[in-house]
Design a protein that fits this description.
Elements lengths: L9 E5 L5 H24 L4 E5 L2 E5 L7 H18 L8 E6 L2 H11 L8 E5 L5 E5 L4 H17 L5 H11 L13 H10 L5 H5 L9 H16 L2 H15 L7 H8 L3 H10 L1
Parallel strand pairs: 1-5, 3-4, 4-6
Antiparallel strand pairs: 2-3, 5-6
Helix pairs in contact: 2-4, 4-5, 5-8, 6-11, 8-9, 9-10
């Protein structure tokens, strides 16, 4: 299955698994392709390489000016662990950074020619994930967004689409702007006042990234903001839900679980953003 962010800037992909009839034939070829990809990464003339928590960074430019951002990526895992009560990922993530679009596109096409252009990408195949990004005006936002995807998928066997994107939108901001500095906030306050925020059950029905438009991203962020900063019962239910997913228990849909804890859920959401 292929996952691609419907926003034009960034994206995350799970590369397609070969059809069963061809899987045995393609197994040896897949090993060769993986070896060639690893060889391509090693042969690239990286100007700077360094670790940042679970991320192993390769860049065709000097990383010293971006060390505070790399520190952010390293701290992001501890923030997710503390906030969501999940286990830290035990997978390393290869992070490839480029100073300009031309080099970025050339390298990405040599590795994953079937993946469309996005200025930042998280790609998950059978092994650990990989991230790719180019320097630009939204470089820091893009990296934190895709890093959140990488850390969540390294810790959990699956993440519901609305929650995956809502958390990535929440944690893409710097620490001091997560709760009240996201550009979505003013619009969400207005929608909450008018009762226009999507019901959680509506977001849970979205199973394909092609169904996620601007409104779906904004509303996913709004529900995550409520879960992380609203009533303690909401946060507690989220933590238990993720614990069930990690334990491979039948987690079910989140909306009815949350409604059992907070029966007047829509009013609670409106109250949260009015305050």
């Amino acid at each position: 299955m292929v996952h691609a962010c419907s926003q034009p800037s960034t994206g995350r992909f799970r590369l397609p698994v070969p059809h069963r009839v061809a899987r045995a034939v393609l197994f040896a070829a897949s090993i060769l392709i993986a070896a060639l990809a690893a060889s391509t990464a090693r042969s690239q003339d990286w100007l700077d390489e360094r670790p940042a928590g679970p991320f192993h960074c390769h860049a065709d430019f000097r990383l010293d000016p971006y060390q505070p951002l790399l520190d952010d990526l390293a701290y992001l895992q501890s923030d997710l662990v503390r906030t969501l009560a999940i286990e830290p990922t035990h997978e390393s993530v290869e992070l490839y950074l480029f100073a300009d679009q031309e080099a970025y596109v050339r390298y990405l096409k040599s590795r994953y020619p079937q993946v469309p252009y996005r200025r930042a990408l998280y790609i998950k195949d059978r092994g650990p994930g990989e991230m790719f990004a180019q320097i630009g005006p939204a470089f820091e936002i893009d990296l934190r967004h895709e890093a959140t995807h990488a850390l969540l998928h390294g810790s959990l066997p699956t993440v519901p689409l609305w929650l995956d994107e809502g958390l990535a939108k929440y944690f893409e901001q710097p620490r001091d702007k997560r709760a009240d500095g996201n550009p979505y906030l003013d619009k969400v306050k207005e929608e909450a006042r008018l009762g226009k925020i999507f019901k959680l059950s509506t977001l849970e029905s979205k199973r394909d990234l092609r169904q996620m438009g601007v409104a779906e991203y904004r509303n996913s962020w709004a529900w995550v903001h409520f879960l992380l900063n609203g009533p303690p019962e909401a946060h507690d239910e989220l933590v238990q839900y993720l614990a069930d997913i990690r334990a491979h228990k039948p987690a079910g849909h989140f909306a009815p679980r949350l409604a059992r804890r907070l029966p007047d859920l829509d009013a609670e959401l409106a109250r949260h953003f009015s305050e």
